[in-house]
Each structure stands twice: as structure tokens, then as C-alpha cells.
Amino acid sequence: MSVMKKKKLIAGNWKMNGSLAANEALLKALLQDIGAPACDVAVCVPAPYLAQVQALAAGSPIAVGAQDLSAQPQGAFTGEQSALMLKDFGVRYAIVGHSERRQYHGESDELVAAKTAAALANGITPIVCVGETLAQREAGETEEVVKRQLAAVIHVNGHCISEIVVAYEPVWAIGTGKTATPEQAQAVHAVLRAQLHHAASDHADGIRILYGGSMNAANAAELLAQPDIDGGLIGGASLKAPDFLQIIAAAR
Ligand code: PEP
To answer: Looking at the domain assignment, is residue 3 inside a domain?
Structure first.
């Protein structure tokens, strides 16, 4: 259980959504009402829109994040973006190991760990996603799966993990409208916190563990009230300004 008060982080994951016009409208609506939030806020946007969103959000409480990055520093890796390139666009956060990348792009625990290292080496905060599928949960494997995924990241990154953000995202809750109950989420967060304690004893309480999976304006406050839930990674609801703003307001 977390004893140290830290700022929560609410990060939107736009996934492969948006357009120049839609992004501008969304950012303007967010900026109009965001005020001075009690939590840190980020939007993780598709790579082509990094420059646009960076310009729109400049000087505001909204930080810009990417949804992925390459584990490689540069070179013949067609289609990839390096951490340094993201830095060029003022990127503060990068989602790493999202379940959609693990599922559709075959990303292994080892690759996720290497991407985490690339982000950390370049001053980008990786939001490292872990989470079990429905079949794994039903087989009683939740703890084993998330611990294995996080262990790979800890193994490669050692004490640097004090700089990461972890996101627990049960795969069965992503984009399905089926949210983990606050108790289910807290139980897994406590497991992850204990694992972080083991690896980074002095800093584990300062590492933010976000919940992600159909978090919305109606369920955010209850989830965010759990002792080891330090914020949210929000997909669908981050595309609607009023909903995202309500989640931000619930994170204090
Ligand atoms: C996500 O994509 O990380 C996510 C949590 O999506 P949603 O909020 O739509 O379930």
C-alpha cells in the first residue's frame, strides 16, 4: 500500500483516432476548462499529430505523449520512431507494451523492456502496460502474468525503474465497457507495488501505477480512491472533452 502522497497522472490514449480538425477541437475544449488540475495530465497521440498537439498544448498543463517508440536509437528500421525523434517534438511520455501492440504486433516482454530502456535513456517517461487476458484471469493466472511482464522490465532496467510509470490494463477491460471493480484493480495494483518494492525499495512508493480499461467519468472517482491506484490510462473516454475533464477532476 502506498504511504507517500504523489500527484496522480491521467493519460489519454487516443489510439489511431483523430484528424487535424478533430484534434484541434478536442484540445481547445480541454484547454478551455482544464484550469489548474490537481493531477498531471497527458495525451498520447498518433505520431503524425505530435507536432500539432505539441503546438496546441504548449504552455498548458497538458503534456504530450507518444503511443509507442523504437527500442533502436536510429537506422534501418522502416516505420519506427526513435526516442530522440520523439524528444524533438517535446514528447514527455511514451506508452510501451500496450496490449494492442503485444497482440497485433507480437511485442514480447523482452522488446517491451528494451523500449522502456530506450525511453529512459532519453528522458521520456515510459508508461509500461501490463495486464492479463480474460482466459488468463479465468485460469487464475493474473498475478503470474502481470508479474512476468513487469519482471522483464525490471530485469533490463534495474534501479532506473524508479522513473517509470506502470499501467495495469486488464485486456478484457480495454475498450469493452467492462471495467475491473475497484477491488479487482486494487488487488493487482498491490501485487505490482510489492514487486516494485522488492526491486526498488526506496522508490517504489513514488512509482505511479495507473489503471486502464474502460475508465470513464462515472467510475473514475471510485477507482482513483484505491490506495495503490495512482491515475488512469484512458482510451475511449479521452476522446470526449467533458468525460476526460471529469476524470481529471476526479484525480486528486
Ligand atoms: C487503453 O487503450 O489503454 C484503454 C484503457 O482503452 P479504454 O479506456 O477505451 O478501455
So the answer is: no
